[in-house]
Automatic annotation (TrEMBL):
This is Glucose-1-phosphate adenylyltransferase. The gene is glgC. The lineage of its organism: Bacteria, Pseudomonadati, Pseudomonadota, Alphaproteobacteria, Acetobacterales. Its EC number is 2.7.7.27. It comes from the Bacteria. It comes from Plastoroseomonas arctica. Alpha-D-glucose 1-phosphate binds at Y109, G174, E189, K190, S207.
């Protein structure tokens, strides 16, 4: 008989991840006309929601629920195709929870807290010890087991993951003040004048929208909040400030649980909620050493793996050479006598002869006609770029035809092209 003590069961194995994936993401403009923000494509083959879900799986969590609401069809289809490997007989579960008026016949999900409240019966049936509440619309790699461990060690009612951001950027976050033991002493949602840190007044401590609760405590708080007619039923606006004032709320620094490979020098987290931020985060992946390592096999980003043939490069003539330089090219792509530089091509893109790309993000099944030139663009799924079209060289003309951002990124969708015909 061994005299070694048995290893403690990881906290993640008795926890449930609840992913809030119902947001529209209106700042992504036409990219979210037909899909919710968590369903937007990212990185060549993934969707944004895959990062929160992959973090949960890689952390050891095997009970997962995803609440959906806005234009959820493509998101639900993706979840069904790519995340259907959970097995009940292994004590695993994966639930997709569309807004379905389960509590009230009048109300859909009224806020983030209400989305969880309307599914209390499902949570109680699974009986997890802890709930890890996640936003489904950020790009990052994080080990939730470390956050769970801090939560239990401190005996907190809620633990809030946070990171340091410039004060100007903090206007879009929940901002907190903490004491020397990491207890939150104040919390305000999206303040016009974010408070700075005492020793660094130019930065603020911002909530990442990631929370850990003891399940029983969370259910009690959701029921209390649901009975409050003055509440907006939102975690950042209502639940967290109440606990800060009346309970024990702890802050968890992101750098303590951020997952980094040997190639990642700093903790990576992105809210790709604008066209500019979305373009930049995708194009950053083409760097020789990108800030986000998608090739880290120790922390894979799981997704729906389409069955596609390999990418194909054809023609080798002067001016008509199939090539991609400093670019990511996904399966099923055909680069036929065209050239791509510092671009990211999703599955099934077809570039025809003499086409040229520079700083282009092309979503799945885009077809670029002969001789077209695209610079600093995001092209939506299935778009057919006409032969000879030039985008990214005349901002006045680009703004007339398409969606041009302040930083000069041009968004192209098929309805925009159809209006030109």
């Amino acid at each position: 008989m061994s005299d070694r003590a048995p290893a403690a069961t990881p906290l993640a194995r008795t926890a449930m991840a609840f992913v809030l994936a119902g947001g529209r993401g209106s700042r992504l403009m036409e990219l979210t006309d037909r899909r919710a923000k968590p369903a937007v494509f990212f990185g060549g083959k993934s969707r944004i929601v895959d990062f929160a879900l992959s973090n949960a799986i890689n952390s050891g969590i095997r009970r997962v629920a995803v609440a959906t609401q806005y234009k959820a069809h493509s998101l639900i289809r993706h979840l069904q195709r790519g995340w259907n490997f959970f097995r009940y007989e292994r004590n695993e579960s994966f639930d997709i929870l569309p807004a379905s008026q389960r509590v009230s016949e009048q109300n859909w999900y009224l806020g983030t807290a209400d989305a969880v409240f309307q599914n209390i019966d499902i949570i109680e049936d699974l009986a997890p010890r802890h709930i890890v509440l996640l936003a489904g619309d950020h790009i990052y790699k994080m080990d939730y087991e470390r956050m769970l461990a801090q939560h239990v060690e401190m005996g907190a009612d809620v633990t809030v993951s946070c990171m340091v951001v410039p004060r100007e950027e903090a206007k879009g976050f929940g901002v907190m003040a903490v004491d020397e033991r990491s207890w939150i002493t104040d919390f305000v949602e999206k303040p016009a004048e974010p408070p700075g840190l005492p020793d660094r007044p130019d930065v603020s401590l911002a909530s990442m929208g990631i929370y850990v609760f003891d399940t029983r405590f969370l259910i009690d708080q959701l029921r209390r909040d649901a009975a409050d007619e003055a509440s907006t039923h939102d975690f950042g606006k209502d639940i967290i400030p109440y606990i800060v004032a009346h309970g024990r709320a702890a802050a968890h620094r992101y750098e303590l649980s951020c997952v980094r490979s040997s190639h990642e020098s700093t903790p990576y987290w992105r809210d790709v909620g604008t066209i500019d931020a979305y373009w930049e985060a995708n194009i950053d992946l083409t760097d020789i050493v990108p800030p986000l390592d998608l090739y880290d096999q120790a922390w894979p980003i799981w997704t729906y793996g389409e069955v596609t043939p390999p990418a194909k490069f054809v023609h080798d003539e002067a001016g008509r050479r199939g090539e991609a330089i400093s670019s990511l090219v996904s399966g099923g792509c055909i680069i036929s006598g065209a050239a791509a530089r510092r671009s990211l091509l999703f599955t099934g893109v077809h570039l025809h002869s003499y086409a040229k790309l520079e700083g282009a993000v092309l979503l799945p099944s885009v077809d670029v006609g002969q001789g077209a030139r695209l610079t600093k663009v995001v092209v939506d799924r299935g778009v057919r770029i006409p032969a000879g079209m030039v985008v990214g060289e005349d901002p006045v003309e680009d703004a007339r035809r398409f969606r041009l951002t302040e930083k000069g990124v041009c968004l192209i969708t098929q309805p925009m092209l159809d209006q030109l015909a």
